[in-house]
Structure formats: structure tokens, C-alpha cells
What we know:
Blueprint lengths: L4 H16 L2 H9 L5 H17 L1 H10 L3 H21 L3 H30 L4 H29 L3 H18 L33 H4 L1 H17 L2 H13 L3 H30 L1 H21 L6 H27 L5 H30 L1 H10 L1 H11 L1 H16 L18 H21 L5
Helix pairs in contact: 1-6, 1-7, 1-8, 2-11, 3-6, 3-15, 4-6, 4-15, 5-6, 5-8, 6-15, 7-8, 7-12, 7-14, 10-15, 10-17, 11-12, 12-13, 12-14, 13-14, 13-16, 13-17, 14-15, 15-16
Amino acid sequence: MVKPTIPLLAVSFFAADVQAGAGPFLGIFLQARGWTPDTIGTVMTLGAIVGMLATLPAGALVDATSHRRAIVVGAGALTIAAAWVIWVSQHFWPITLALTATAIAGTTMGPAMIGLTLGMIGKRNFDRQYGRNQVANHAGNIVAAVLSGVLGWWLGIPYVFALGAAFGLACIGSVLLIPPGAVHRHFARGLAHRDEKEPSPVPVDSMRILLHSRPLLVLSLALAAFSLGNSAMLPLYSLAVAATHHRDASQIAAANIVISQVVMLIAAVYASRAIRRWGFWWVILATLITLPLRGFTAALLDTPWGILPVQIFDGLGSGLQGVAIPALVMHLLHGTGRVNLGQGAVQGVEAAGACLSPMLGGWIANRFGFPVAFMALGSLTAISLAAWIVLGSQIRQAFDTRRGELEGMEDLDVSALFREPDVRPGASRRSVRAVCRSHGARSANRSGPNTS
């Protein structure tokens, strides 16, 4: 019988295209049909705004429901529907609705994957398993980018969207292979509460932690400014190289994605080691520094071979952030029952910068040229660095304070997920619950009899 972590990795692999959406290929597709850069940026921004507004409800939904697999199914279905709309129509509002659907799907997948991983693995091994998830996710992006480049060159850009629909369907099939009993509903929301039959009320004031946690606010501010400069870089660079050198834009976009995703994959492999050796503060600081390097390199090297250094910087920053940010938020909020809501809140503030990035970048590029746009976007990192350096010490202090609390909290015993599976009928559905009860009994024995 397949271990539950295997389909989890498969979901991460196929979720790559669900989370990425149409990506730079949509910009190329619309440009070929006479759309201007500022109009393309506007329609992408409108879709992204809806996705941004969905981040907090998505996190709250993942915390509230015990049907987290169904959330992934819904995200895959939205991706399939959006691909069909883009295929049959190139008008403003249908494309906007399609981008809205893909933005909601991508936004929902983030907290859903974190909730599934936390519910299956627990807090102690979360960063290790989530790092593996990210490796699978980047591998999926690489495969999707290569196939998109081939399809775009051979059959045309519309078939790239058909590939996205196929990935959405495969994502649905993969998540249905995860046994429902493999996801502990209380641990999935960040509660140290082992009995799934018992209620797990979360105090109303636990919602206030999102506003009263200064480390979360500092993190959100730094990521918002970073995303404002970073998100539009890839589609704009693809358009700049294609326009200047008259190359096949779909192949340029695919090369951009493949290079960055290969570097992201390597960064994700070593991310958890880097976090344990250097700490969250230093790792995230390194990711913020990559933005100005990327922007100035893009401004100076608008040649096909310039793709390599530009996307290496993107891969380093995004690859490390993809593991470090969810792990940091989980450590700060574990025990509140609002881990996924917190993840959604941080993603929402980050998305606020990301959704404005295409409009800002497209406007600057349309009026002042691509090099000026790249330099302006890269300069926005000054806000991120100022916030992180001046206020980031609160992150380190908060994590040091929480470390002792986390060690005392109950956790899942996931040894059953990493040894040879039990082949008895129904064993996979009971494995996590059984080891969780076993771990809880051992914890109770260590703490002595209940005298209440």
C-alpha cells in the first residue's frame, strides 16, 4: 500500500500549474492578439486583486473544515474551467474572470497544502516534509514549463492552457489518493489536540493574534514590498527579450521558468538545513537581497543569454522563501488553532504587492521602456530591507520565546509514514490516528496521572 506522503508529493507536483496559473504565457498570448502591455497588466491585476482578497477566507476555511482534500479538488476544478474560458475567448471580461478563477485556485492551494502537511506530519517534521513538497512543486513547474514551451512552439500557445487543465485534473486525482484518516483535523490547524472526536473550540481572541503579532506584521510588510517589485519581472523580461531580439516568446518564457525552477528546486532541498544552521532572519534577509540584483541585471542584459543570471536570482529568493515563510508562520502560530488563517493573512498582504506589480511594471515599461521598469522594480527592495533590518530582531526574539513552548506541545508520531506500510485492509486509514493515540498515551504517562 502506498504511503500517504507519496500522493501528497504528487499533489505538490501537479499543483505547480494550478498555483502558477497562466503565468507569462498569457501575456504572450494576449500580446499576439494586439493587447498592449498596460492592458495586459491591468487584466492580470484585476484577477490578482480577487485572489488577494481570497487569501484570508481561504486560510480560515482550511482551519475550519475537516474536508481539506475537497478544497484541493475545488482548486483543480477552477483551473480546468479557467483554461477552457481562455481557450474559447480573448475578450477583456472573460479573460478577467478566468484569471480570477486561477487566482482563487492558486491562493487556496497554499493554505490547503500547509494544512494537509501539518495534519499528516505534525510540527516537528513540518519543515522537512514541506521542503520535500516544494521540491516536488518545483519539479512540476519544470516539467510544465518544458511541455509548455514545446506545445507553444509546436501547436501554439492555446495548448499551453490545455496542459494547465490536464495538471488540474491530475492534481484532483492525486489528492483523492490520500486516505481521509491520514490527515488529523486538529493538528492540521495547529492545535495540539489529539482526539479527533473531541471538539476543538478556538477562543475568539485567538483571531487577534494576527493583528497583535508584531513579528507577523514585520514579515508581511517586507514580503509585500518584495512582491511588488518581483512579481512582474518574469513576464516583463519575457516580453522584453522577445521584442528586442525577435525570438519565439513562448520558448523564452519557458526558458525563464525552467532556469528559475531548477534553482528553486536546489534551494528548497537545502532550505531546511539553512534555516536550522543560520536561522529564519538570515535566510529571509538573503532572499530580499536577490531582488535588486535581479532587477539591475535584467536592465543591463536584455539578451537571450541574460535569462540565466536574472532567473538564478529569482530561483534563490523564491526557493528559500517557499520553505522558510510557511515554516516561520507555523512556528509563530502553532497552538492557536489559526495556523492556516495566519498563512492566508501573510499571503494576502504579500499578494497585495504582487497584484499591483504587473500594473506598475506594465505602466513603466509602456512609457519609459523595459530597462527603466526593471531598475524601478528592483529598487523597491529598499523598503523590504529597511523593515527587515530595523524591525526584524522581533522575529528572532519571538521565535526564541516560542521554541520552549513548542517543545512542550503534543505532536504527531509519524514514524509509521516513513517505514514499510502495513498491508492489512484499512491499515493506511488508521495509521496516523493510531500512532497519534499512542503518542498521546506516552505523553500522558510521562506527565503523570491527571489530578483535576
